[in-house]
Amino acid sequence: MNEGLRPRLFMRSLLLQAGFGDERRQGLGFSWTIDPALRAAYRGDADGLRAARRRHLESFNTQPCAAGLIVGACAALEARAAAGDAGAAERARAFKSSIGAALAGSADALFWGALRPLAAATAALVAVLGYRAGAASPFMIGAASGLLVFNAPALTARWLGVGRGLAVADAAALEACSLPAQSWIRVARWTALALALVACALALELPELRAHAALAAAALAFGAAFSRAAGGPLRLVAAAGILGAAASLALGWAP
Amino acid sequence: MTGLSLLGGAAAVAALELDEASIGTFLLSRPFVVGPLIGWARGDVWSGAALGAAFEALTLTELPLGGRLDLSASVAAGTAAWLACGVAGISIEAAFFAGLAAGWVQARVERRLRGTRGALARGAERALCDGQEPRLGARLAGALTVQAAATFAVCAASLAVGAAFLPPTWAALPEFARVGTRSAFFAAPWIGAGGLAASLGRRS
């Protein structure tokens, strides 16, 4: 396999969603991502290249951070197909559709459901701590911390995924399935929960918010108790607005 | 707010929005980044951070599964922060509601765009059948350009309408309505954080 292929596939995988559409989801992005591998594999075989490009224009969807493994594995399978392995092209097609959905389940829970809240909670906690300590740009430092918490594992997963896929082709899926993803998800969620609660508690002690701490704590409890039943927090925010307006009308209350 | 700064604001939010579902995703488009960043650029990082925290907490439990998109958090936070930090007469709570409206519109525009992108892949397939280069990179670049242009248009329109109409509308509102919007904005990050905490505890 070409030495420069891994960084190229990795960089291109960052644009996997650029052509995201209802009809083929990430299909167009996937075909562009894997194109250098196809051109390298089918050099001098125009018909083979055309057929491979058409295969990878089909509908495809997965969690973007998990896509590296699928890109790498499909590139390795296409290289085998170009070298004469009769079943490899069909295996690439089947691998994409089956493992794309399977990986998306765990990866969505890990990256969107656990690491994204962890990043936001880290950003909030670092910002509040920085503000209390009198740091020059606490909110920017907080945002940078959150970005680091998400992107370090996300980019590592993409890079390692492309590498393992290129190295062992579809066997990379077995390696991915043996990872303790569920325990990572649990740890990340509990950590996010703890950090978010500490950030809220510290924020309520800030001089700017201390006077309204009881109201904020009530809103926090209100959100925890009813967000799910209300179908999301936005309706509760509207309810809080109506309550505030009613209290102003009836009691002359002003926050 | 000059026309140039309005266009600059719309361009900045449009560039950051590309990270939401097109490039990356690095979370550069999340409100916890967009809010403080726009606030810092406008010289009021505190208001930007407050709006960023509110939109982050409200949208964090919405997972983009299968490309789901109910509200564009980046456009909502960016538009709100730009209005709150740069326009005289626009309170932070008024900017919050303007941001919500802009984010809602952007989500609908994005859905329409996603409905049209099937043609790009079909065009590439046709080119391959005709023995031509599929020009995949050019097609993707075209999709990104259209996406950025649409976001820019939504943001520029939102900022222009917000800057022109929010100050007089806000001033004309009765006191109880202003108290209601202030209550909603104050409660938003806490309600969102509570919902997130419950959701994280439940899933764990």
Molecular structure report:
The complex is a heterodimer of chains A (255) and B (204). Helix content of chain A is 76%, strand content 0%. Chain A is mostly helical and 255 residues long. With 204 residues, chain B is mostly helical. Chain B has 8 helices and no strands. The longest helix of chain B is centred in the C-terminal third of the chain and has 37 residues. The mean pLDDT of chain B is 93.
Write a concise synopsis of the structure shown:
Chain A has about 260 residues and is mainly alpha-helical. Chain A is built from eleven helices and no strands.
- Could you say how many structural domains of chain B there are in total? 1
Give the low-confidence spans of chain A.
Answer: none
Rg estimate of chain A, integer Å: 24 Å
What amount of the residues of chain B lies in strands? Answer: under 5%
Structural class of chain B: mainly alpha
Low-confidence stretches of chain B: none
Q: Tally of extended strands of chain B?
A: 0
Per DSSP E runs of 2 or more residues, the count of β-strands of chain A stands at: 0
- Percent of residues in helices of chain B: over 70%
Can you count the helices of chain B?
8
What coarse outline of chain A follows from CA principal-axis ratios? elongated
Q: Tell me the β content of chain A.
A: under 5%
Class by SSE composition of chain A: mainly alpha
Please state the average pLDDT score of chain A: 95
Quaternary state of this entry equals heterodimer
For the largest interface, the chains and their residue counts are: A-B, 84 and 79 residues
